[in-house]
Design brief:
alpha/beta, FAD/NAD(P)-binding domain, nine-stranded mixed sheet, five-stranded parallel sheet, 22 strands, globular, disordered N terminus, disordered C terminus, binds ligand NA7
């Protein structure tokens, strides 16, 4: 029941965010469990990441036929993707189609941010405060805030004095930005820079790219999808989706052919070449040891370095673009269209700011090593306060008024990347400690939403009013997440996975790297064991779930 006394409105669940996670969560709780649900969304439309990231060239690096919901056979049969990798406008159209098709909009409050949320222990409910001054209560609070939604601009001296327009790739204006005839600075060469630079360079009079760290990028080999390709996938959707759900990354790349260290050189080169020509991030799955063995990694890295040198005509520029400071794949691999070739254009200048950082920004441009690069516009492609940023932006207070951001001051602590001890009835979709950003987000989102829905249904069926992760279960899960990460090369990179792009942020490898399929199995087992590792309270008692927490949370496999 929704109860409104004019000031406070009560729901069964409040969801934060109307991206792909929030929309599906709403649908499941409302349509399958019959709950009364309110979604708060700070944008004035659905789509989350794809609502905000409207920069030129913005495109998903997972193939469109699989970067889409699988929960509705009708939806996946009727929607027509047009290109192998979907553009941001096409993904946003899809998000809007889903919102309309399933009648989601009436339950979403747009242009509304949640400032804070407090757990009321006497009532076992959350009280949520929004920036429109309203107060809402709900038994469950579910965050669907996205992993890359807190955009970040470094604090460059003098940046406020710049005379022209500035843009952040993750907060791009809704109206078209026309760079025709203009001199544009792009700061940052992560995925957003790498996707936008070729498109901006094709339009602008001149582009100056300020690069601190070169990244590895593989060609997308994007193009229109043929009718036959679409038909073939649609005919086999169920099997393909199921394969993705139990795969390491939630996608369907060709299986690795063996160890890069053991295979003969001609075999491994042929394999890499074939994957390179085919395009996409599946290139990274050629061998079993790329992510765990430095020597194996170097084989793959060197192949990519050779491709960069092959494409870029000026050896001095190629040399600047060749990544050497991190093993390939330990920073998110970029997937591009014509990125390296763009440096052969006359209207593109590459400025390395590795040895000589950006000194300051003046009214007329960007100063590096005493030299002013005059520009009309500045594009900040400088990334996000990833994963914890959007959660810490909300003042979430659990038992005894403890703030989540205080609990996480030395790094995020979660059980299964879904719950955090001391924050009962709070579920966090694709939070730190889950595969999230290391996977096809659509697969991980659906898995979390389904698991949370089942947990809430279980609570309802068993008279549970409060469910909270057990601290021991959480600690054991955190140890496992770290242990698995330390078996890989990932912690060697100063990446946003590690929090390394934000000065002062604790260096903790945040996502769970044990694989989407293995992780799903562990979550399913926790559910099958009556939500092992959670303390469930019924209306008149608090009891640990069926197995005690101390036996519980160490996963069966990694
Ligand atoms: P990323 O991948 O975090 O890239 C940000 C870029 O901005 C990266 O090249 C940074 O260099 C650069 N940067 C950040 N601060 C500075 C300063 N102070 N000076 C110069 N350059 C700077 O963000 P994206 O938006 O491109 O991509 C995020 C994810 O979205 C991506 O991985 C996909 O999953 C989709 P650095 O490497 O830190 O030296």
């Amino acid at each position: 029941m929704t109860v409104s006394d004019g000031q406070t409105t009560d729901y069964d669940a409040v969801i934060v965010g109307a991206g792909f996670a929030g929309m599906y969560m709403l649908k499941r709780l409302r349509d399958d469990l019959g709950l009364n649900v309110r979604v708060f969304e700070r944008g004035d439309g659905v789509g989350g990441t794809w609502y905000w990231n409207r920069y030129p060239g913005a495109r998903c690096d997972v193939e469109s036929l699989f970067y889409s919901y699988s929960f509705s056979p009708e939806l996946q049969q009727e929607w027509q993707w047009t290109e192998r990798y979907p553009t941001q406008p096409e993904i946003l159209r899809y998000a809007n189609h889903v919102a309309d098709r399933f009648g989601l909009r009436p339950d979403i409050a747009f242009s509304t941010s949640i400032d804070s949320a407090r757990y009321d222990e006497a009532q076992d409910r959350w009280t949520v405060y929004t920036d429109d001054g309203l107060v809402t209560t709900a038994q469950y609070l579910i965050t669907a805030v996205g992993c890359l939604s807190a955009s970040r601009v470094p604090d460059f001296e003098g940046m406020e004095t710049f005379g022209g327009p500035t843009y952040h790739t993750g907060r791009w204006p809704h109206e078209e930005v026309d760079f025709t005839g203009r001199r544009v600075a792009v700061i940052g060469t992560g995925s957003s820079g790498i996707q936008s630079i070729p498109v901006i360079a094709a339009q602008a009079a001149h582009v100056t790219v300020f690069q601190r760290t070169p990244n590895f990028s593989v060609p997308a080999v994007n193009g229109p999808l043929s009718g036959a390709e679409i038909e073939q996938t649609k005919a086999n959707y169920e099997q393909l989706r199921q394969a993705a759900r139990i795969s390491p990354t939630g996608t369907n790349p060709a299986a690795p052919i063996g160890s890069a260290l053991e295979l003969p050189e001609d075999v491994r080169t042929r394999e890499m070449k074939e994957r390179w020509d085919y395009g996409g991030a599946g290139f990274m799955s050629a061998f079993i040891d790329t992510g765990v063995n430095a020597e194996a990694n170097e084989v793959v890295a060197e192949f990519v370095r050779d491709r960069i040198r092959e494409v870029v005509e000026r050896p001095d520029i190629a040399d600047l673009l060749v990544p050497r400071d991190h093993p390939i794949g330990t920073k998110r691999i970029c997937v591009d269209t014509d990125y390296y070739a763009t440096y052969n254009r006359d209207n593109v200048t590459l400025v390395s700011v590795r040895e000589t950082p950006i000194e300051r920004i003046t009214e007329r441009g960007v100063v590096v090593a005493g030299e002013l690069y005059e520009v009309d516009d500045i594009v900040y492609a400088t990334g996000f306060d990833a994963m914890t940023g959007p959660l810490n932006a909300i003042d979430i207070r659990g038992v005894d008024g403890v703030a989540l951001r205080e609990k996480w001051v030395a790094g995020p602590r979660t059980y299964l990347g879904i719950a955090s001890a001391g924050f009962p009835n709070l579920f966090m979709i694709t939070a730190p400690g889950s595969p999230s950003v290391l996977s096809n987000m659509m697969v991980s989102i659906e898995q979390h939403v389904d698991w949370i829905t089942d947990h809430i249904a279980y609570a309802r069926d068993h008279g549970v009013t409060r469910t909270d992760a057990d601290p021991t279960a959480e600690e054991n899960w955190g140890d496992h997440v770290n242990e698995v990460a330390n078996m890989t090369l990932y912690p060697r990179a100063a990446s946003w996975y590690m929090g390394a792009n934000i000065p002062g942020k604790p260096r903790v490898f945040m996502p769970y790297i044990g694989g989407v399929g293995a992780y799903r199995q562990m979550c399913d087992q926790v559910a099958a064991d009556g939500y092992r590792g959670f303390t469930l309270k019924t209306s008149n008692d608090v009891r640990p779930s069926r197995q005690s927490a101390s036996q519980a949370p160490v996963p069966a496999e990694s």
